[in-house]
Protein backbone atom coordinates (compact mmCIF):
# COMPACT_ATOMS: atom_id res chain seq x y z
CA UNK A 1 0.00 0.00 0.00
CA UNK A 2 2.78 2.41 0.84
CA UNK A 3 4.34 1.92 -2.58
CA UNK A 4 1.14 3.03 -4.35
CA UNK A 5 0.92 6.32 -2.44
CA UNK A 6 4.62 6.94 -3.06
CA UNK A 7 4.13 6.33 -6.80
CA UNK A 8 1.19 8.77 -6.90
CA UNK A 9 3.19 11.47 -5.11
CA UNK A 10 6.11 10.95 -7.54
CA UNK A 11 3.68 11.34 -10.49
CA UNK A 12 2.32 14.59 -9.09
CA UNK A 13 5.87 15.89 -8.61
CA UNK A 14 6.66 15.01 -12.24
CA UNK A 15 3.50 16.82 -13.37
CA UNK A 16 4.51 19.91 -11.42
CA UNK A 17 7.78 19.98 -13.35
CA UNK A 18 5.83 20.21 -16.63
CA UNK A 19 3.88 23.36 -15.72
CA UNK A 20 5.09 26.48 -17.52
CA UNK A 21 4.46 29.92 -16.12
CA UNK A 22 5.65 31.69 -19.25
CA UNK A 23 3.22 34.28 -20.63
CA UNK A 24 3.28 34.71 -24.41
CA UNK A 25 2.19 38.14 -25.57
CA UNK A 26 0.33 37.42 -28.79
CA UNK A 27 -0.31 41.09 -29.48
CA UNK A 28 3.24 41.70 -30.66
CA UNK A 29 3.53 41.83 -34.48
CA UNK A 30 7.23 41.02 -34.20
CA UNK A 31 6.58 37.74 -32.39
CA UNK A 32 3.48 36.78 -34.43
CA UNK A 33 3.75 38.29 -37.92
CA UNK A 34 0.94 37.97 -40.45
CA UNK A 35 1.34 34.91 -42.63
CA UNK A 36 -0.13 36.75 -45.58
CA UNK A 37 0.27 40.54 -45.60
CA UNK A 38 -3.01 42.44 -45.75
CA UNK A 39 -5.22 39.68 -44.37
CA UNK A 40 -5.97 41.54 -41.15
CA UNK A 41 -7.24 44.61 -43.02
CA UNK A 42 -9.28 42.42 -45.37
CA UNK A 43 -10.89 40.65 -42.41
CA UNK A 44 -11.82 43.97 -40.81
CA UNK A 45 -13.41 45.16 -44.08
CA UNK A 46 -15.36 41.93 -44.50
CA UNK A 47 -16.68 42.08 -40.96
CA UNK A 48 -17.76 45.70 -41.51
CA UNK A 49 -19.61 44.68 -44.69
CA UNK A 50 -21.23 41.75 -42.88
CA UNK A 51 -22.51 43.99 -40.09
CA UNK A 52 -23.89 46.48 -42.61
CA UNK A 53 -26.26 43.94 -44.14
CA UNK A 54 -28.98 42.87 -41.73
CA UNK A 55 -29.42 39.32 -43.11
CA UNK A 56 -26.66 36.87 -44.00
CA UNK A 57 -26.14 36.03 -47.67
CA UNK A 58 -27.23 32.40 -47.26
CA UNK A 59 -30.43 33.52 -45.55
CA UNK A 60 -31.25 36.13 -48.22
CA UNK A 61 -31.57 33.40 -50.89
CA UNK A 62 -34.16 31.44 -48.89
CA UNK A 63 -37.89 31.75 -49.40
CA UNK A 64 -40.36 32.02 -46.54
CA UNK A 65 -41.29 28.33 -46.82
CA UNK A 66 -37.62 27.35 -46.53
CA UNK A 67 -37.17 29.49 -43.42
CA UNK A 68 -40.29 27.97 -41.85
CA UNK A 69 -38.95 24.48 -42.59
CA UNK A 70 -35.60 25.35 -40.96
CA UNK A 71 -37.40 26.66 -37.89
CA UNK A 72 -39.49 23.49 -37.75
CA UNK A 73 -36.38 21.29 -37.92
CA UNK A 74 -34.66 23.44 -35.30
CA UNK A 75 -37.51 22.92 -32.84
CA UNK A 76 -37.41 19.09 -33.09
CA UNK A 77 -35.74 16.90 -30.51
CA UNK A 78 -32.93 14.59 -31.58
CA UNK A 79 -35.18 11.53 -31.80
CA UNK A 80 -37.83 13.46 -33.76
CA UNK A 81 -35.17 14.76 -36.13
CA UNK A 82 -33.77 11.25 -36.65
CA UNK A 83 -37.29 9.97 -37.39
CA UNK A 84 -37.74 12.77 -39.93
CA UNK A 85 -34.43 11.86 -41.59
CA UNK A 86 -35.46 8.19 -41.74
CA UNK A 87 -38.73 9.21 -43.37
CA UNK A 88 -36.86 11.27 -45.97
CA UNK A 89 -34.50 8.36 -46.67
CA UNK A 90 -37.46 6.00 -47.14
CA UNK A 91 -39.13 8.50 -49.47
CA UNK A 92 -35.93 8.84 -51.51
CA UNK A 93 -35.68 5.04 -51.75
CA UNK A 94 -39.31 4.76 -52.91
CA UNK A 95 -38.75 7.48 -55.51
CA UNK A 96 -35.65 5.63 -56.74
CA UNK A 97 -37.66 2.42 -57.17
CA UNK A 98 -40.40 4.28 -59.02
CA UNK A 99 -37.86 5.96 -61.29
CA UNK A 100 -36.27 2.59 -62.07
CA UNK A 101 -39.69 1.16 -62.99
CA UNK A 102 -40.47 4.12 -65.25
CA UNK A 103 -37.06 3.95 -66.95
CA UNK A 104 -37.58 0.23 -67.59
CA UNK A 105 -41.04 0.96 -68.95
CA UNK A 106 -39.64 3.70 -71.19
CA UNK A 107 -36.97 1.32 -72.45
CA UNK A 108 -39.57 -1.30 -73.41
CA UNK A 109 -41.76 1.34 -75.11
CA UNK A 110 -38.73 2.78 -76.94
CA UNK A 111 -39.52 6.27 -75.66
CA UNK A 112 -35.89 7.43 -75.75
CA UNK A 113 -34.99 5.92 -79.11
CA UNK A 114 -33.55 8.22 -81.73
CA UNK A 115 -35.84 8.90 -84.68
CA UNK A 116 -35.05 6.81 -87.74
CA UNK A 117 -33.67 8.65 -90.72
CA UNK A 118 -35.93 8.47 -93.80
CA UNK A 119 -34.21 6.98 -96.85
TrEMBL record:
For biological process, the GO terms are: regulation of DNA-templated transcription
Please tell me one Gene Ontology term that the record gives under cellular component.
DRM complex
Would you say which domain of life the source belongs to? Eukaryota
Report the InterPro entries cross-referenced here.
DREAM_LIN52
Q: Indicate the family of this protein.
A: Belongs to the lin-52 family.
Protein name, as recorded: Protein lin-52 homolog
Annotated organism of origin = Elysia marginata
Amino acid sequence: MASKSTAKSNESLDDDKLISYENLDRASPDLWPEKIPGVAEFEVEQRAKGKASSTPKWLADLEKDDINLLQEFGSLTLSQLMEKVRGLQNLAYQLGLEEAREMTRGKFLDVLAKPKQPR
